[in-house]
Prior knowledge:
Blueprint: H1 2-18, E1 37-40, E2 47-49, E3 52-71, H2 76-80, E4 83-88, H3 95-98, E5 101-106, E6 109-114, H4 123-128, E7 130-137, H5 140-148, E8 154-165, E9 171-173, E10 187-197
Parallel strand pairs: 7-10
Antiparallel strand pairs: 1-3, 2-3, 3-4, 3-8, 4-7, 5-6, 8-9, 8-10
Amino acid sequence: MKNFLIACVAIYLTWFIFFKQExxxxxxxxxxxxxxxxxxxxxxxxxxxxxFIITPLAQFxxxxxxxxxxxxxxxxEAELSPTDLAFGWGRMSDEAVIEQLxxxxxxxxxxxxxxxxxxxxxxREIETSSANMHIxxxxxxxRHELKKIRQGDIVRLKGRLVRVDAxxxxxxxxxxxxxxxxxxxxxxxxxxSLEIESVL
Length: 200
């Protein structure tokens, strides 16, 4: 029993030292003022990606603050998208606003609650200036950058909003608007480039 406890402590310390990612604190201020940019693809060309068929729906680009990061390893979705990033832009990239919210992620959802009775900014602005996004890395370079991202980082990415289909009829489709909420409101992004922006 003693050896088991020692092993557990050793595993925890290894995780804490090497894998736990502390949040980045930039202080108050709007660090990502622009809304995500999206443009329609007139004639999308489907392509195979591993065992899936991907249909591009729109070109997509954003610069935003990472409100949360959640990794997944189970389920068909995780085969494609190992990580969800909750992003905020506009006043949802301002830590003076964010620190008044409780933000969490689980089950491919992003949730927020106010820490007091009031809203730091209008509720609708929170809903339309933040979103949970499922990240499909195009290649190993994007995967590598994705692993480095921490909560609080300012990230710029480019890619395509997509629909994914499998041969057995399973599919997964991106939202095409930032104004929706609830089920189906998340963006599914085939990410072609990803970088953490230095703002210090």
